[in-house]
Inverse folding.
């Protein structure tokens, strides 16, 4: 049973003559499932049956005009059915909806529509940037598509766009660490500007039927972390992120390996094959001021703390610096983290404390000979973007991140 996946099967029972806004209810249910990106939907016409009203429906020749029973079956992963059901319930007002858990064996390539997030937030081009930030923070996402009235994608506003073109004072992941007055000040600075002023346009999109390999290749080539997903008409129906693709790859050992042989070929490599070796380090007793300077200078936004023998004992993130500093210092360190100079060179960082006092002692790591499948599993389980790589003695060899794993999947490692 290792190749079988858990799915939910939803059945919608209705009559052929059931209408919603003048259209057959069963047609609208199928369209909604397709728009939502469901794995599949099938409509069956019954030959004989009756419902709660006890009216007999039959397909006998002399009664072809009768209201025949109809059944719509929709199969998908449980979490996607959770998001789809409220929409179906609005359409199937006069019918019966059932749901049951079962196992399925997929013998077809996994495509973008199978892993994308269908419940995607979007904004219009004239949406105020303050509202955009509120939406991103509330939904815990890093980007939002900008669409026109016909749901065609005009562009994408990312956290990076808000930093570089919108003047946002902190990355979205750090925004919650700011004092309330600083967050209000940041929101006020954005107010009056619109999504179309800062969005990346034209947006790079991907079709719902594209393979995960194709999506990963496009992300790597363009340096993107997510792609809006469009249907055959070019309308937005979802968004697929690097994390969505990596999660799908992480399920390969327990899913259908026959469905994704080319997609997962790159994961046969080891951590040492995709290693990042330029990793900033510090000793536990080094001043936090020096640690902050190294962290700010590195795109990894992490400093690995080593003991006298060179073994990994902790790690310092940019969020650790913010948490360590008082409210008076936080605006300064944020300016430093994003390359904005202060008149006082040391104004942006905390001058007291050591690396050992600020570091996290829980360090997620893997051995240098770990297979990328194991690396990926650990990233997903712990919800981390990067893992420290060590040798057999626990000494630092480097780091491996999500981008490196995606490049391996895309065949570019």
């Amino acid at each position: 049973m290792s190749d079988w996946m858990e799915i939910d099967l939803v059945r919608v029972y209705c009559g052929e003559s059931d209408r919603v806004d003048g259209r057959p209810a069963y047609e609208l249910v199928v369209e909604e499932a397709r728009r939502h990106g469901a794995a599949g939907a099938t409509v069956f016409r019954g030959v004989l049956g009756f419902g709660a009203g006890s009216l007999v429906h039959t397909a006998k020749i002399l009664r072809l005009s009768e209201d025949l029973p109809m059944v719509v079956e929709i199969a998908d992963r449980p979490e996607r059915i959770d998001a789809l059901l409220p929409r179906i319930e609005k359409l199937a007002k006069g019918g019966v909806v059932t749901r049951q858990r079962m196992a399925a064996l997929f013998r077809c390539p996994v495509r973008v529509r199978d892993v994308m997030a269908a419940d995607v937030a979007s904004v219009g081009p004239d949406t105020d940037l303050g509202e955009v930030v509120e939406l991103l923070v509330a939904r815990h996402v890093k980007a939002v598509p900008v669409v026109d009235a016909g749901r065609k994608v005009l562009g994408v506003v990312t956290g990076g766009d808000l930093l570089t073109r919108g003047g946002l004072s902190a990355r979205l992941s750090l925004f919650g660490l700011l004092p309330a007055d600083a967050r209000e000040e940041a929101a006020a600075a954005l107010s009056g500007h619109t999504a179309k002023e800062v969005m990346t346009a034209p947006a790079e999109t991907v079709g719902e039927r594209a393979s995960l390999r194709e999506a990963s290749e496009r992300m790597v080539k363009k340096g993107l972390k997510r792609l809006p997903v469009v249907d055959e008409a070019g309308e937005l129906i979802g968004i697929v992120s690097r994390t969505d693709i990596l999660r799908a790859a992480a399920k390969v050992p327990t899913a259908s390996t026959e469905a994704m042989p080319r997609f997962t070929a790159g994961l046969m490599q080891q951590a040492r094959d995709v290693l990042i070796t330029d990793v900033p380090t510090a000793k536990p007793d080094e001043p936090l001021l020096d640690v902050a300077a190294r962290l700010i200078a590195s795109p990894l936004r992490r400093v690995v703390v080593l003991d006298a023998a060179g073994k990994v004992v902790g790690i310092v993130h940019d969020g650790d610096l913010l948490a360590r500093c008082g409210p008076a210092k936080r605006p300064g360190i944020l300016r430093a983290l994003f390359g904005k100079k202060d008149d006082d060179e040391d104004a942006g960082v905390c001058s007291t404390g050591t690396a050992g006092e600020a570091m996290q002692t829980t360090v997620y790591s893997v051995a240098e000979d770990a297979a990328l499948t194991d690396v990926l599993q650990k990233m997903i389980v712990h919800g981390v973007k990067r893992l420290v790589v060590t040798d057999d003695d626990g000494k630092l060899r480097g780091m491996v991140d999500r981008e490196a794993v995606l490049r391996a999947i895309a065949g570019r490692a």
